[in-house]
Amino acid sequence: MKIGILGLGTVGGGVWDILSTTKFQEYDIKVKTALVRNKSKYISYEEQGLNLTLDPYEILNDPEIDTVVEVMGGIDKPYEYIKYALSQGKHVVTANKAVLAKHMEEFLALAKNNNAALLYEASVGGGIPLIKPLKQNARINNFYEISGILNGTSNFILSKMSKEGLEFADVLKQAQEKGYAEQDPSDDIDGTDMARKISVLSSTIFKKHLPLEHIQINGIRHIEKQDMDIAKKAGCDIKLIAKSNYENNNYKAAVEPVILKQNSIFAQVSDEYNIGMAKGDNLSEVSFYGEGAGRYATANAVVSDLLDIYNHEAIEHLAVDFSSTKVNPILADYYVRLNDTNKIEELKAKLSSYNLINLHKGAFIAEKITSSEIKNYADEINVANQNYFIARLDDALIPSELL
Amino acid sequence: MKIGILGLGTVGGGVWDILSTTKFQEYDIKVKTALVRNKSKYISYEEQGLNLTLDPYEILNDPEIDTVVEVMGGIDKPYEYIKYALSQGKHVVTANKAVLAKHMEEFLALAKNNNAALLYEASVGGGIPLIKPLKQNARINNFYEISGILNGTSNFILSKMSKEGLEFADVLKQAQEKGYAEQDPSDDIDGTDMARKISVLSSTIFKKHLPLEHIQINGIRHIEKQDMDIAKKAGCDIKLIAKSNYENNNYKAAVEPVILKQNSIFAQVSDEYNIGMAKGDNLSEVSFYGEGAGRYATANAVVSDLLDIYNHEAIEHLAVDFSSTKVNPILADYYVRLNDTNKIEELKAKLSSYNLINLHKGAFIAEKITSSEIKNYADEINVANQNYFIARLDDALIPSELL
User: Fold this and answer.
1) Domain span at A390
2) Least buried of A193, B29, B239, B333, by fewest C-beta within 10 Å?
3) In Å, how far is A387's CA from the nearest CA of chain B?
């Protein structure tokens, strides 16, 4: 097996390191070439026998390279390179949920037609063996629900707010200083990253594509200390959770903050850790917990995929239904908090046909509603900058417990 | 693939049911014959086309049967049949941790010499995909610790004591009435079942056999409400936990009650649920959670193994080191409770070289000690019926937190 790596950053360098350990001397696996943006930074790799190139096509057109690892990030260029690699019959291993969520249909067709493998264990849940065990069990067991805490940055922020009683903005600033959050953290805190991951998981486990634009997404950008305080006073916590569900021929999907009891497994997932959970007919509930990111955890997942290709255990091609399907938001009880006291009365008036429970002057619970209905009404009354916070109440939580 | 099933009880019947669903029409898999003790009870299976036999050798000598599923329980007969099947080159899938913990060396040699697969996903953690993901990751990542709550009966009893404030004997009686506990529950409550499982996991993940007789085992037979009360007052819980560890060329293994904080993942594993956790160099911590038993969860694991054999993904033979190695008990802080007030003073005197923290007249904590030392001293002073309770304090717990 001869490998080309697109991107020699944190994960790409970790893959090289793992494959250089003595464990891999017995395998006929060699990383031949890596795409970098600047050769001088990576001279130490060159000294260890790795070819460096600035031209991706030196990898993609190399007949000796049978497997391409894409760990460069972004969407447009990875799309171009993955497509090209698969069309040449090269196997592809990627950690890139963004490009997968957008282009999986085209990738799967190319992989099948060119008898190439397309594996992506590292794309969801970093170091957690999640996709492969679920994919394999989906051969036997009908899964009808997948959920998870699948973004380390947002979970780190919420954990710190919960433990230390801090405001969102202060924690975000700290996280950025420590490198736990990007300078532009939008994908993480607005829920986009998790929506991509739940879309990839749904394609893999349900064999049904749930497009990003149909997934209800509410992030944590507007959460305040007062929201966490209300939850904690009631023995609860707030977590950003992705969930997709298939029942009665009806798909539901959402990424949104959830208020859940502290004595639940999800509430114990702290800091940058992730968890993925699936429910099925034989396996009523299985969960997988571990590091959501990190150099060696993520690289370990990439190498796991590489070994499956090496051992010819990755041949089965996913048959995913990409036809357009209505994806519904989740019907539940929702916590709503809005600091503008005039607007909150206007919003409550709009929601008068629902059962509302007042928590204090700025916050209430609306029962049996969807977040999209609440957001539509908030738009109608022009809440400035959409500056309100909504969170779903977990099924195990009774609204009155928050009083 | 033609299968013979040894034992058509809960799990065996579940395997038949799953393989009879429409999902499996596309596979060339057929269950041909099942061993039963009494044909009349299983006539409905015969009507669906399954041969029933009272003679195991009708399966073991059938040249058409290439794969044997052993789900009959016990040790001696499964040992005989599995050995025979492997020596005939038949693949074996078993859910039987007792026979594996005792005879794995012989089984692995036979499997290798006869080019047969030996798989046992169902033997540990019932429906949790645990063994395969760990085994696969062990190819890449050096795991140095495995731990888990791996017995549903004992965990059900401890959960109920914790939630409802009941005495051990009352909960055990209820569990037996509901069928959650056997009439002779010794293997479950004394920790033997979990010791077998941690031995099987250690062989699989560390590639090192830790024999049962070298694993320190303390069960929950002598736990009382007062022990749980002390833990709960301190925001803790008590769980029966198996753990094995490999560091600095030194193996440690124990199955024992552990006092751990309620805000930990293990404390959230309730009732008959199980969890398995592994720590390694690339994967700092991964956990797998789900149903520890149950007809379809366990049968799902058996069928998962069968599909791996069907897809020729089970060929790699485990190379386990069976040489004799010293296995040490765990050095930690231990909670000790003894109702006989004379004996407890005698025991404390014996332990005078250790730092002791008194909790109340019948209970104390001994710091930095092993459970085997405490048990040896208790034996020396002849505690009647070994009627004392000891529990390890989790690493995250400081002894003074229990005051």
Assistant:
1) 331-402
2) B29
3) 32
